[in-house]
Amino acid sequence: MLWKFMRVAKYSKTALSPKVKVRGIPTHSRYSSSKSIPSDFAANTPCSNTVELLGKAYPQDDYSNVTEKILSKVGKNLHNTKHHPLWLVKEQVKDHFYKQYIGRRGTPVFSVYDGLSPVVTVQQNFDSLLIPQNHASRRKEDNYYLNRDHMLRAHTSAHQWDLIHSGLDAFLAVGDVYRRDTIDNTHYPVFHQMEGVRLFSCHELFSSIKDGEGLQLFEQGHRTAHKQECHTMEAVRLVEFNLKQVLTKLMMHIFGDGLQVRWVDCYFPFTHPSFEMEINFQGEWMEVLGCGVMEQQLVNSAGAQDKIGWAFGLGLERLAMILYDIPDIRLFWSEDERFLKQFIVPHIWQKIEFQPLSRYPPLINDISFWLPSETYSKNDFYDLARTIGGDLIEKVVLVDEFTHPKTKKVSHCYRIIYRHPERTLTQDEVHRIHQAIEESAVRELGVEGRF
Predict the structure, then answer these.
(1) For 151-177, how does the pLDDT look when each residue is reduced to its tens digit (9 = 90+)?
(2) Which of 100, 199, 208, 359 is deepest in the core (most CB within 10 A)?
């Protein structure tokens, strides 16, 4: 889910792979559906007016802001690459859900979809999740738009509505998501999420409750901090209890029994009430996922008016970095055998003691410039630096902001830390990259250099 981004989600038929039927998914389809997109076929820019991605051409307009660097990541499908650490985490979660939740026919309750296209409509990514038109999460500064109507999904919640509309009431959706963001060791413009959804009928929710025959899912009440206006308190409490129990079991299965868990109230547009889950791992509290009771308006619009449910979203990189003690998110994109071979294990639950690669020295350069009078976004500069410097840039930090007392012009100074994860960089190659960033910032962002 977009849980951490601002907490939003949606989808549409165009987001489903050919293997996923939009309607009438039979019971026997409750299995993992995976269809990888070859990376060498992923993206092509035939001319300046269109972007060709996954075999379809998208006309560019004033919203188009996807860079070639980002397009080159589409179709890599790290979560489906066997023995990759993200694949291991995905398989662990999937294995847990398959074995823990079995239906009356002996088949898994949850279906898994990990091959859905990352190209979605704006309606899928935002509107279907009830994200207001003026919500900050829609900004160009935070997303990768192909044009005004299509984008690279910002969260796997973009598929939530379509999968519910197809008739599913319990599923996991996994995939790569794209966001313009800060540059440091825990943020990368492409990462991987898992979305979980479970819906309950009145009978399913109350059948195990003593004297539960007279309990109802819905009422005409008022929205409070604890429930939606249409939900009964009994229904919300049971859904919330089930959700927290499911996720606590999952985390204990991954990190071990005795794991400390706590819940923090928060806000997501598509769930209410909403929570963030934190775990105490090796003495440090860490946020690992967002979750909540699904907004009934969303559930109703997808055709499940007689059901109530929960949803959660977690980041695979987040779990893998904690579980394997991986210090830098860029390593997930490494092709270095010293990194990859550590995760070739006979079974997905084997304990792995990650051995860090040699720590190469950083090279630090600053860049200062006056901001243009028109709108400027730090994410525009981060994206430009990432496009030119790629994974050689470990971190970019705004270290100084100055307003001229007379002209009122604003100056930013950014510190760029260059460090290759696999070798030592030379000052000459860093200088060339840094100079290219300076020149591009002037040309593309309209800044006035103070180099």
Answers:
(1) 999 999 999 999 999 999 999 999 999
(2) 199
